[in-house]
Amino acid sequence: MDRIIKKKKWTVKKILTIVFAAAFGFFIIYLLFFRDKQSKLYVNKEQLSVAEVKLDRFQEFIPTDGVAYPKTTIYIDAVQGGSVERVFVEDGANLKNGDTILKLANADMELRYMDQETRMYDAINNLQNSKVSFERSKFTRQLDIVNLMAQIDKVKIDFERKQQLHKEAYISEQEFEDAQRDYDLTMKQLSISLELQRLDSVSMVEQTRQIDNSIDRMHNNLALLNKNLQNLFIKSPANGKLSSFSVEIGETTSAGEHLGQIDMMEDGFKLRANIDERYISTVYIGQTAEFDFAGKTYHLEIMKIYTDVTNGSFQVDLQFTGDEPEPKGLKRGQTVQLRLHFSSPRDAVIVKRGGFFQETGGNWIYVVDVSNDFASKRNIRLGRQNTNYYEVMEGLDPGEKVIISSYDAFGSKDKLIFR
Asked: Is pLDDT of 226 > 60?
């Protein structure tokens, strides 16, 4: 007899179908929600430069070259033009104040000097002759007064005698009046002569003063002419070393032309540095700098700023600070590597400089995972910098490790997996 066979509810095929369907569902969910969507790149760890983020002292500075110059330099210019007749010293000579460096020849100026000198001496002689004439006139006037005084004595004696005789009626009235008239006339002549002498004396004093002043001016002019002639001899204005001097015999120089300079080595050195024009608003008088020389660090400060910008940079002069001695062996024109400070040292989170900055602009960096198996991209913010480190403002903590080598080959991937 037939038997009803019950159909199995869970067949192998059904179970396999459910299993495959569930697996496919889980796979879709994984793809949609749990799969790591970050872009990856496999890299060789040995080819990377890794640095640790630190909390350390940080000081912002920029490197720049400083050239050594004498602190005091006196320029030598040709006061008068002419051709070089003789050179007495060579470039680099140590000179004392007044030493002759070279002699110029200027025939036209010498002829003009001789002509002006002759005319001035003639004028001086004429003025001195006028002064002698004034003296002669003074003595002539005095002689006239002396003669008048002698004549008055005679007239006075004659008048007094005739006055007595007139009282005693020994002479006529007319004879007495003639004597009195002669006496009065002589006294008036004396009064006029004395007044003229006084006026002449006043006038003579003023004219003599003017003549003396004129003679003094002419002597000063002669001295100035002689000084101009002496300017053909170029002399050292101070003790020092002659530099930038390259004059040859027969060469023609113009008035005001720069011939060389005297470096006053005893005053010490200063450094002149070229700084990028981007920093012109942040550089100031008294700003500090330092450089290393012969195993020692020397400190300086800015003493002068040249604000003219040439080829994208401007210049500053720096002097050694305090009583610190200048480095021995430093020579004129020698170049040293300066560190120009823009802040004081302070504690900060820092990361070593590297090629990553060119690709990221300091906006992000690859941070190495604690497992050392991969590195992930992280946004950061950098602040100030110096030649060795960047200051980290946010995004990194001390102790973390980051990749600082160039990112050119990474294509801005989200994760670098080490091989």
From this structure: yes
